[in-house]
Amino acid sequence: MITSDLFIAGGGPAGLVAAIAARRKGLDVVVADGAQPEIDKSCGEGLMPDALATLAELGIELDACAGQPFYGIRFLGRDSSVEACFPKGVGLGMRRTVMHGALVRAAERVGVRLLWNSPVTALGQELLKVGDETVCSRYIAGADGGNSSLRRWAGLDARVSEGLRFGFRRHYRVGQWTDHVEVHWSSGCQIYVTPIAPDVVCVASLARVADLRLDQALPRFPELERRLRGAEAVTTERGGVSASRHLRRVTRGNVALIGDASGSLDAVTGEGMCLAFRQAVALGDALALDRLDSYQSAHARIRRGPALMADLLLLLDRRDSLRGRVLAALESRPAVFADMLATHVGEWKPLGMVWPLVSLGWGLLTV
Ligand SMILES: Cc1cc2nc3c(=O)[nH]c(=O)nc-3n(C[C@H](O)[C@H](O)[C@H](O)COP(=O)(O)OP(=O)(O)OC[C@H]3O[C@@H](n4cnc5c(N)ncnc54)[C@H](O)[C@@H]3O)c2cc1C
Questions:
Q1: Using a 6 Å cutoff on CB, does residue 119 contact ligand 1?
Q2: Is the pTM of this model over 0.90?
Q3: Which DSSP category does 257 fall into?
Q4: What is 308-342 written as a DSSP string?
Q5: Using the 8-state DSSP alphabet, how is residue 29 labeled?
Q6: Is 183 in the pocket of ligand 1 (CB under 6 A)?
Q7: Is residue 347 predicted with pLDDT exceeding 70?
């Protein structure tokens, strides 16, 4: 029998950071994952400054030399572009496998018990198994990703909304041309470029159709295609699903969901891991107080701001003419874009987005 205060199904970024947060509160924590480190995943591989700040709160410092810092975000449309630097801190482009290795070592250092190649299965409600062993834990967390089995077993699958997009990523060795994450926009598809080493970029596409592979998407972005022409592809293409999923509840009884298992925002926000890390801190706090209900409300609070940004960005994805006008308006008012970025990566305040949106609205009337 596996006994613990907190048993976490899934040792991806959410599970590992939640384990560290709970361990720092004195809980005995076990994490079981069906795969083994270093676990890869289709991802834009950009950690925003707020994600790094949340990790730092938990004593996790990622080695910047194992990745590549970036200083802001640049949007590029067909006829216009706009960029802004982060108001505070820098982001970090880091290969998913490298980040996973670093989180595993951080979890080991604080005494989390890690079980790899150990898929969690259910044997009826409220009985979890890892291999032949039964799990007996005061609390259980589902950090088993967007397709979470734990969510289903716990009866937490009821959702407010759901939308899917499909991503593909590949790494290219190429002379560095950007110290910002670039988001290239075209009709029905975006491509993200994240510098992850002095001579390597991660290129990830996102589209509503499932079969738009990178090689088919790139011709929609002639400038980017030109930069990548002849560049060596250093990894094979990897696909993934980006879900916008809003669940009714993320806790039930002694079970809590975290990370993509607990609902997710479209990857266009670049905030997936930051949300997971913030949820990890909130879950640790709630467990330390023995008040899982407070995690439910904290989870909703953490999601609110980034969810609004995701809605706005997905509107630009859906409406080509609106996107053209918004990018043109932002190009002529870069300070508005800077305000929006600052709100996105800062402490979310309900009125934080009002002024940038009013300015943008005015800009739209005058472009
Ligand atoms: C195309 C794309 C680009 C993205 N770009 C970014 C970005 O640039 N920045 C960013 O912050 N976020 C990005 N995201 C989002 C980010 O990848 C996710 O938010 C993040 O991976 C969530 O982490 P997680 O630990 O919740 O889930 P996952 O990373 O999916 O980890 C889940 C873990 O659970 C394990 N597991 C599953 N089932 C079981 C089981 N039954 N038993 C045991 N273990 C199990 C899996 O092996 C896995 O290790 C992107 C997503 C996509 C699709």
A1: yes
A2: yes
A3: E
A4: HHHHHHHHHHH-HHHHHHHHHHHHH-HHHHHHHHH
A5: E
A6: no
A7: no
